[in-house]
Amino acid sequence: MNTHKDRALGMRRDITRRDFLNGVAVGVGGLLAAPPLLGRAFPDEFAPEKATDYYPPALQGMRGNHDGTFTYAHRLRDGESWDSDGGATKTGETYDLVVVGGGISGLAAAYFYRKQAGENARILILDNHDDFGGHAKRNEFHAANRMLLSYGGTQSIDSPGRYSKVARGLLTELGVETERFYKAYDQKLYSTLGTAVFYDRETFGEDRLVPGLGSTPWAEFLAKSPMSSAVQKDLVRVYTEKVDYLSDLSPQQKRAKLAKISYADFLTTICKVHPDALKFFQSYTNDLFAVGIDAVPALACYQETDDYGGYAYAGFQGMNLEEEREREEPYIFHFPDGNASIARLLVRSMIPAAIPGRSMDDVVTARANYAKLDQADSKVRIRLNSTVMHVAQAGVNAASKEVDVSYERGKQLQSVRGKQCVLACYNGMIPYLCPELPEKQKEALSYLVKAPLVYTHVAIRNWTVFQKIGIHQIEAPGSFHTYVALDFPVSLGEYQFPSKPEEPMVLFMLRTPCKPGLSQREQHRAGRAELMRTAFSAFERNVRDQLGRMLGPSGFDPARDIEGITVNRWAHGYAYGYNSLFDPDWSEEEKPWVIGRKRFGQIAIANSDAAAIAYSDAAIDQAYRAVSELTQQGS
Ligand SMILES: Cc1cc2nc3c(=O)[nH]c(=O)nc-3n(C[C@H](O)[C@H](O)[C@H](O)COP(=O)(O)OP(=O)(O)OC[C@H]3O[C@@H](n4cnc5c(N)ncnc54)[C@H](O)[C@@H]3O)c2cc1C
Fold this sequence. Notes:
Elements lengths: L2 H7 L16 H4 L31 E4 L6 H7 L11 E12 L3 H14 L5 E4 L11 E6 L2 E6 L13 H9 L7 H4 L9 E6 L1 H4 L3 E4 L6 H6 L5 H12 L10 H9 L3 H8 L7 H4 L4 H4 L8 H6 L36 H11 L29 E4 L2 E8 L9 E7 L2 E12 L6 H4 L5 H8 L6 E8 L3 H6 L1 E5 L7 E4 L18 E7 L8 H14 L2 H16 L6 H4 E9 L21 H5 L6 E3 L10 H16 L4
Parallel strand pairs: 1-16, 2-3, 2-11, 3-8, 6-13, 11-17
Antiparallel strand pairs: 4-5, 6-7, 9-10, 10-11, 12-15, 12-16, 13-14, 14-15
Helix pairs in contact: 4-15, 4-23, 5-23
């Protein structure tokens, strides 16, 4: 570590983050030591949520899967076994439904169950994080006497026109009118600002920021890059020529071939571009697939219609694949805190005292009262900071009528009983929680390796440097964070987006810890291990260094201009989705997520993993299916 350089980057600046231990309020951080779990008398003495200053959305530092959430879960993974009587203190609580996982799927499961079973149904939702919402988390910053909102994970309601009747119906019942975003999202604000590519010296030989991606003619744009003239020429060619590179095949044969070849191999072996050109494209797929172009089928790139502002995937212009690509809706259905607003609306609908207000407008600025989430007199309760360790039928067989759920909370093992249970947690963890499941089902669940990715948010003093350069986003294919963008310009209710360049702003920075050369699932496993080894200080140093190198020549000073940093580390991020490069061509009933999500007695399985689709509507649809399986048994 170079302390002189660190000082110049502002590593020693006192930002709010330093009030917290790696983003975990001190009372919760004590979980790190992981002593053995013990039972103890109930009522629960460990209740950090009741503290008046308990407010996770405003925590900075390492968030997402923050420290303390995985300590005991990893011990379970590493071979320790627990059973419901293994020292667990019975709280004496009984519920109609216990839900494991307080993400959108778990919250939606509680909502649907209540709708079907009636408002008197008693429901407990358990989650291992210090905040509810799963990936749909809220980030708050306070800079220059104002609050800046952003999203910790789940970004937007993507293509609501394609939502199922169930998912659309839920949004409507929660008061979400998606057409309101056409006005709330300022579609003009960035219209004069473009995209730059940052070529970093480690990958491209020198640091250079080149604006004009997608808006400048390719030859002119690439001539300003530090890449060789041979590479530039190939890139211009593959972007501009309309050639059918597989003209001897029928459209169907072409699609079959492109499903089995990566986009990287398509470019080099079929379009014959120079191998060095791959560096330019390498991170194009990171955002959507959480792996680079080496592990994404070319066909999937073709099917991705978004043109990213004029720089869509190259090479398909003349391919005549005869596949209808649905016109995408604009990507504007975005609450200022992303889909955290959906999670918050779900919580409000079941525990009104926790989030004041009545509309999609006032939910944006409403301050959640975490002390109200787990009240004994409430029909629906949400218990945070509680990692479920064991879920078992209370009797000896699957026909048994009740379920015991044991969870770690404040280093203690407690257990509650539910008539029924929905597991809306990571499907890959279920075999550890429910060892009684059939072997074939456990094997199928274990196949689903979630994708690791990081959404870093950086509060900056103002965004004049972006205005000066004329950009609102940067592709940085070789850098630590491969994409950087100004936040989505949405004003809703009393929340006003910082639309003047002199105002403070939140920057989004994306990192996916990919390991090119491995299969997608192996990349996810290796990437997750890397994330768990990377301290917040390493993220901070990289953020400061990268922003300084990209924007410093135009006047940005990381030591002066950075007000706060929140690293949303999603070690367990996107649900695993079928990848035609690596996965067998399963029939419907052979798909691991279909086998994995089968009901087991009074236990049903939800989460977006159960659909193998990393979208909020999938999480909602799976919640509905799981609840219906429980409530309609035998009907
Ligand atoms: C960074 C990121 C961005 C995304 N962006 C979008 C987007 O823009 N639009 C979109 O539609 N989708 C997006 N998604 C997909 C997102 O996964 C879904 O939208 C949805 O939020 C998933 O909800 P879920 O409830 O199924 O899972 P999760 O949100 O993962 O919730 C499951 C919860 O269960 C908890 N849990 C797991 N094990 C246990 C245990 N043993 N005990 C207690 N709790 C446990 C987890 O910690 C988690 O809180 C994004 C995902 C990520 C990671």
